[in-house]
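Support case: user asked for a sample of complex input and structure output to validate their parser. Sending the pair below.
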Amino acid sequence: MVIILEIAKITFKGGMRDKVFITLLAVSILCFIILVPAISSLSMRQPREVSVGLSLSIISFVSLILTIFLGVNLVYRDMERRFAHPVISMPVSREAFILGKFLGLSGIIGSGVAILSAFSLIGITIASRLYQSSIPMSYENFIAAVFFEFIALIIVASASILFSSFSTNLFLPLFATVGVYIIGNVTQAVMDYINSPHGTKLPSPSIYLSKTAYYIFPNLTALDFKFNAIYSLPTSPAYMLTVLSYAILYIIIVLGISVLIFRRRELL
Amino acid sequence: MNTAIKTEGLSKTYKGKKGKHVDALKDLNLDVQKGEVFGFLGPNGAGKTTTIKLLMGLIYPTSGEFYINGIAGTSLSYKKMAGYLSENPSFYDYLTGEELLSFVGRTFKMSADAILEGSDRLLKLLDLYDARKRPIKGYSKGMVQRLGLAQCLIHDPDILILDEPMSGLDPIGRILVRDIILDLKSKGKCVFMSTHILNDIETICDRVGIIVKGELRLVESIRDIMAKGIKGYLLTFNTISGHMANFFKTISEDIELTKDFSPDNSPSPLLVKGGKGGLFSTCIIKQEDLESVLSEVIKDKETSIQMIEPVRKGLEELFTEIANED
């Protein structure tokens, strides 16, 4: 466990010193303080709702870029530039290496999301003062939405580690991770359509394929609580717990596969 | 038990393109003793780095096994006793030198005090102390190489596995590393090093293994190689009489007398003074003639020898012979 934490620590340090990470955060912070109140004010009667929606979308988008960029780059670069060699030559198991990388990456994503969320609240506060909304701001829902965004992102990060654990080029993990994110966001809608009266008319291979994708890819729609945050809708703790358990189980399975693959990988 | 590194039938086959297989290492059987500096020599692509990567668990053997201090290579714990320096060391370049050593120390579960003490000592020893707070990405190749040596020494391992430790170092750096290796040897540590620099092997190593095309062709002590390789002796004279010069001409084909020396025209002894200009007369004699030559020289009062040096087949010649064998 100590070794996993040590690897997580240096991975985290690397991410926090990454120029892309710092630049993206700086640009996003400016967006939150200037762009979010400005655009929200155009909505006339709903600046707060718009500012919450906009802020969560920016957090989601920027964090996704960070996750994919750092997730793919961290493990891939370790192999490509042989940073992993001195680490693996020490009494560090392949499992510890993968888990440490994942924990470190999660730490970077978590810090990024936390910093972005803190600054987004400034923009939301400014926007809220422009026009009094009829719906009160629910900070609990906002935090829940941000938290589950973070969970969705670490699922994507685990996928990026899985693809990087066997790939010898940058493009496979990059496109495969983007693919997981996109598919993960549409499988629920596709499943809903299949289960609707229109869906039964679809050819059976399409239904079979969609169902397979639904069970293989992560259901990221289930982790989307933005709507609840924007309109301060109540969220069920039991539902959140179920979704969280699903996410944790999914991550464990993906990391388990990554470890099995990485154990066999030769560091040439 | 004195064996530090033992390999038994260690082999590695890489899958090449179009289903071809490349035998990078064939049936390597090696015993390296504790307190020994073992030089692993071979041309490019001979299997040196493959062997070292197998020993460090970076790649897996196709067959065979190895033991480090008696612990099987399948167990992770043997790595606690080993320090590894790769051919072109590459470290997380956003870390500073100090942070890297601290990370390595913590990975080896050293105490904070021991890490601090070891890190300061090694950074000073390897002339990196002033650069300790700079990110590694700003280091020169030689500095990275020296930092690599520091990171494999910080936990005071019993066994050091060094892949081309002198590569990228300037002459001062090479002398420094050579002295460190000799110091490790004096402390009873085992050093297994691959190198292309034959002079390093001759001056540092106790034994050498020569590997060619994945096969270990020779394992021999440097002392034996040197003794076996003596072809004759080079005599350098302070003074030489005409009589002796003529005598040497009869037993040696490789005689070189000073320019103004002509024994046929000088029946009387000609004294040749040695000096800075290299005005020496020299002669190479066969190993078996040494005794008779010395007795002749002792009898001749006008001939004096300044130096007797063995003329030997060096490691370079031996290496070239073995590398070209097929």
